[in-house]
Design brief:
single chain, about 150 residues, alpha+beta, Aminopeptidase, 7-stranded mixed β-sheet, 3 helices, 7 strands, globular
Length: about 150
């Protein structure tokens, strides 16, 4: 299993078909951020995601996660686990205090993120998952700007 940088010329044609195979329209390549990573399992591209990183606010948003719909549940879960481990390590090494990712309520990626100690900030039909990359491991509900009204 290997996590590496997203290479648009090589990876985009494959990733774009994943959205199509899932019955969704792929975003335009220009829409996704240039800091993308992919996970290869046994040499096959299996998952990808993109990080929007605001250095001033010290936050990051993991977006546009997509997986090969034909990879199987276990392979997909392993690949997503490695991608999020990469983003967590990146956050800890690049002064990102908070990482966020949106997930549909009840989806497998939300369960995976909970297992990885991400916290859920519930919303209508979706929940924002939050990871604390600082040593205190402060929960988002303990931070006034992140708590529910």
């Amino acid at each position: 299993m290997r996590v590496r940088r997203f290479i648009p010329e090589q990876d985009w044609p494959i990733v774009k078909t994943w959205w199509k195979d899932r019955g969704a329209a792929a975003p335009d390549l220009i829409t996704v951020h240039p800091f993308g990573v992919v996970c290869e399992v046994e040499g096959a591209l299996t998952a990808c995601a993109f990080l929007y990183h605001d250095k001033l606010a010290r936050t990051g948003m993991v977006e546009w996660e997509c997986t090969d719909p034909h990879a199987g549940a276990l392979r997909t879960l392993r690949a997503l686990n490695h991608l999020f481990a990469f983003f967590e390590d990146y956050a800890q090494n690049n002064e990102i205090v908070w990482l966020f990712s949106w997930t549909a309520e009840g989806r497998g990626d939300g369960r995976l993120l909970r297992q990885r100690q991400w916290h859920a900030l519930p919303g209508p039909r979706h929940e924002c998952m939050c990871y604390t990359a600082q040593a205190t491991k402060q929960k988002p509900e303990d931070v006034p700007c992140l708590s529910q009204p």
